[in-house]
Every structure is written in C-alpha cells, then in structure tokens.
Amino acid sequence: MQTVQLNDTLVITNIANCKKRILTALKDAMQQNQSEIVIKLDQVSDCDSSGVQLLMAAQKQGFKENIKVSFDNYSESVMRAFQTVGIDDVNEYFHDSSEVSQWAKQ
User: Domains in the chain, start-ordered, CATH in brackets?
Assistant: First the structure.
C-alpha cells in the first residue's frame, strides 16, 4: 500500500504540486501491483474547492486503475472544504466501492 502524506495546502495555488505527488503514488502502486493508496490529510493547513476536486479526481483515477484511493486523518480545514461543497461525511460518502463506482461513471 502506498501512502501519501500531504503536508501543505490543498488550494488552487498548490494543486499542481499535490496532484504530482498523488499521481506518482498511483503510478508506483500500479508498478508494484498494489491495490490501494492512502492519502493522509491531517497536516493540510488549508483546503478549498480545488483541493476537494483533486481528491475526488484521485479517487476516480484510482477506480479506473483498480486502485482504491482512501483518505485518512482529515484536518479540520479539509472537513470544512468538503462540507462547503455539500459533503458532510466523507467516510459515508465513499463508504463502499459501489458508491465510488457510481461517482466515477459521472
């Protein structure tokens, strides 16, 4: 299992850097025949809607590659950003693979 610790901000000005780290983890997981990556979010000091979009895109890409992308240890700023876009409980929103599957097809 690959782990990505995001230690910075998930805001529009830093999305490219975070995206690169996540895509590298997905690529490494594929090359090593791993079925999951975990993105740790406890050190994220700020998150906006572009950060939420990046995390959802990571899950969608993982689904396409048969790699489960999960989030761990949400910071308060990440939770506020998810709530702002209408996702009150990220764990409930992506509770099982069928929900991810439905979302990924959109």
Answer: 2-94 (3.30.750.24)
